[in-house]
Design a protein that fits this description.
Strand content: 25-35%
Structural class: alpha+beta
CATH topology: Aminopeptidase
Helix content: 25-40%
Number of helices: 4
Bound molecules: coenzyme A
Number of strands: 6
Radius of gyration: 15 Å
Number of domains: 1
Keywords: Acyltransferase, Transferase
GO molecular function, one term: acyltransferase activity, transferring groups other than amino-acyl groups
CATH superfamily: Gcn5-related N-acetyltransferase (GNAT)
Pfam families: Acetyltransf_1
Order of helices and strands: HHEEEHEHEE
Distance between the termini: 37 Å
Protein name: Ribosomal-protein-alanine N-acetyltransferase
Largest sheet: 6 strands, mixed
Length: 151
């Protein structure tokens, strides 16, 4: 039977270009899910939670701390993109964080990730830069930008 870790990893493998070195391994995701403050959400391409026999088309992974949360990962499979699923997943993460009484949601993005346009449209503001944070598979170093959303 397919479990949620399988669903997350299927999306991870389809969504992230290996060049950028942003995808997490199965071990990293599995370990993070053993912590009670790590939360995930899955959506199908119809933007609902998958049934037990269904694949996911997108997921989010969030780390919650008192008052502040971090969107660790958001991903949608290429064939389901551009239809608002990424927006729906982030909206859901914001709502969950609000329910846990967080006041800010942070995320880190590679400076040239086109997802930044979506983050900005949703109200995230750049608050800092981390030099050479990502290393690409061909050895380039790329800065990360830290974004925050007041929720
Ligand atoms: C970022 C991501 C989750 C967005 O998912 P989505 O379902 O397409 O999101 P939406 O349909 O709600 O929004 C699409 C918007 O995202 C932005 N965008 C993100 N990636 C893009 C890309 N590769 N090319 C063009 N626009 C992109 C655009 O602003 C786009 O708006 P548009 O459709 O009006 O052009 C998806 O592109 C993805 O999985 N990317 C790879 C993984 C990744 O980089 N994740 C973020 C870092 S953890």
């Amino acid at each position: 039977m397919m479990d949620d870790l399988d669903r997350i990893m299927a999306v991870m493998e389809a969504a992230f270009d290996p060049l950028w070195g942003e995808a997490w391994t199965r071990r990293q995701v599995g370990d993070s899910l053993t912590f009670p403050h790590t939360h995930y959400r899955l959506l199908t391409r119809d933007a609902v939670e998958p049934r037990s026999d269904e694949q996911a088309a997108g997921f989010t992974l969030v780390r919650a701390a008192p008052g502040e949360e971090e969107l660790l990962l958001v991903a949608v499979v290429p064939e389901a993109r551009g239809r608002g699923l990424g927006h729906a997943l982030i909206t859901q993460a914001v709502a969950d964080a609000r329910t846990r009484r967080a006041e800010r949601l942070f995320l880190e993005a590679r400076h040239n990730n086109p997802a930044i346009a979506l983050y900005r449209r949703m109200g995230f503001e750049a608050i800092g830069q981390r030099k050479d944070y990502y290393q690409t598979s061909d050895g380039q170093k790329l800065d990360a930008i830290t974004f925050a959303l007041r929720i």
